[in-house]
Design goal:
By secondary structure, the chain is mostly helical. Helix content is 71%, strand content 0%.
Amino acid sequence: MTERELDAAGITDPVLREAYDHCRRLNARHGRTYFLATRLLPVERRPAVHALYGFARWADDIVDALGTGADTARRDAELAALERELANGLRDGESAEPVVRALADTARRYGIDHAHFADFMTAMRSDLVVTDYADYAALRRYMHGSAAVIGLQMLPVLGTVTDRDTAAPHAAALGVAFQLTNFLRDVGEDLDRGRVYLPADLLAAHGVDRERLRWSRDTGRRDPRITSALRAFERLTRGVYRQAAPGLAMLEPVSRPCIRTAFVLYGGILDAVAEDGYAVLHRRSVVQRRRRAVVAADGLVRVAAARLRARSAAARGTERAPLTAPEPRMVEEVA
């Protein structure tokens, strides 16, 4: 599978191939929902997506997963080292770090604006010191770097049928919608890390504060005020999905099934949270495997249709057909 992706992408250097494979393994281990959706892309585009998400995953791990003994100073030093490595890699195209090497190659191949990576690193650094947000405006400023720029990085890889500037706000909104979904799903886990991403003014409007969340997490007891606040955050998140939705039709047809699948699966997490009674302080809500398989199968059908249309257009000389289609085995692997 990996060899096929790299061959299709024209990545021949052995060291670079290993760097991309390293990124792919990171995504397979950490990002199950989006890794599944990525399998719906033409194989030649998948390595770039793995590089972008692999880098984001690695930086996020520095912030969150260095172990309980890692203090802020150590995390700050690790991020500073990564920033230096990133700057050098983007400038020279070389790096001893596999993730940076793959990212730099992807940025060069697709002409991705380096400012997006700088904004992302700024957001990662803020996670070391900022533990809550007064209002949604403050949270959105943070999410520009932590989520919106991920959508903007992806856009050149996915391709558009409109000019990129028209599609960009929708791509940014989708990145934000995905992260808001994660914030809702992971309220309890984030609280254990000392962070509350739900805006303080939204919580206060429902009679909730950090101490009330901590009480519920520690005791396992429910509070209707917390449920009401979580429901309000879900409604806010669904509004951002609506802002993102028009962008799906602006993508190249061969990319739409991938992003639509991610759109539906992440939206399904919101459904799962609601169906679970907003019990996110006590357990993680997940999309059932059967539902995931149904969505993946629908994505495969859409890929086949897009490929057929592209072939017909190519025969008429109006569009280049994609090189390859996704593997039918994907639906079997969901479960």
